[in-house]
Amino acid sequence: MDLQPEVELKLDLSLEAAEMFARWPSLPAESQTAALHAIYFDTPDHQLGKRGMSLRIRQSGRRRVQTVKADGRDGAGLFARDEWETPVRGDAPVLDDRTPVAALLGAAVAEVDRLFTVDVQRRTWTVTRDGATIELVLDRGAVLAAGREQAICEIELELKAGDPVALFALARRIDADIALRPGVLSKAERGYRLTEALPAAIKAEKVALDPSMSVRQTFLRIAASCLRHYRLNEALLLDHYTPEALHQARVAIRRLRSALKLFKPVLRAADASRFQGELRWLAAVLGEARDLDVLIPRVVDDSARARLEAAQATAHQRVLQWLESARVRTLLIDLVEWTALGAGLKMKADRSAVPFAVTRLRKLRKRIAMGGKHLAQLNDEARHAVRKDAKKLRYGAEFFAGLFGGKRKRIRRKKAFLGKLEAMQDMLGTLNDLATTPAILVRYGLPVDVAAGKVEKGDLLTAAAQAHEALVDARRFWT
Predict the structure, then answer these.
(1) Which keywords does UniProt give here (predicted)?
(2) DSSP state, residue 207
(3) Residues 79, 156: contact at Cβ < 8 Å?
């Protein structure tokens, strides 16, 4: 059994950018090329994929190697994973005790079969930069599954020797000439996604935490999860705009900003301030399009709708222009580097994550309990402040949920608490729409009565106050 750790920086680029990169004058003169054909295997119900594992047989020339990987799915650009490699003679996997597959699947190991294939042309260079030795790989090809095909264009940078900062220096040097974005999908994940219906958007995945983790480990995993959530939806937007993908991209930004606030006690103030500022800007860039996406379906007047749809088209185009910008690409690479190199966390981040999470969740809940008192009598601004705190608490509760897993009673309490929190958020969100819609309509020179779906504000305030009381009375799952 060959067990080896692997760390690499993965970067996505377009087909046109890949052509440019292959001719990039700053590349070393010498390179190696190889044609790689890989067959990926799993059970019909994807039991390996659901466990974050992949099984492939890759052929290069006459040589075939079977590889089992435990993918770092919580990574955003930076992957850390275990591999088991075994030479094989043919295209049938060898599932003996040299890999964990048989033990993992049990009797279902007999159901393992071909799932999809990946064909790439690989070109490899060795780069020496800033005292570091880096293997640079360009892969161009396609993944084929279920009669569908998706192009693969990606660069991988692997540090062979030296300071990992050099990886990011090289990435920025390339990006100055050829647009790059952190990659968050392995080739195996691309194949699995191609076997299913293409989504309009991708929701946040559960963050894999456990009670043994430190504050440091917890923050880095949460931050990586947020970056992955954003990049998956950004990629969908760059391919084809959908309101759902825009919404999830904004959710990902809010989640990451909430994580920076939750972990403020262990972060360097300058880092937190810098990234908060850029993320706030990016959220605002997406905000106008989101406002129009939500408002237009409620507008019943044809001429008003036409005016808003023209503004919507412009807002959509502006979003895509900004997403293509160097400012956004630089922000993403900066975030990946920051988290990959440890985020400059303070020494106290090495303490247990559980008491830290308890303290932060308790503080947020208290702010909501106090700030939402007499909620029906609060003005719009004060209610909006409660709504923002409710979002932070919800994201924090979702982030930290894995730290408090185990017993059924606690799991039920988590579900009930989050349900009450979501109910209050929904009420406050509707109230916020009532407060902000008139200003949006006025901004476009429209009367405030062109939007349908009006509700009685008094009834909504009463319901929101009751939802607040239910949340305050709910059992905390972290105690």
Answers:
(1) Transferase
(2) P
(3) no
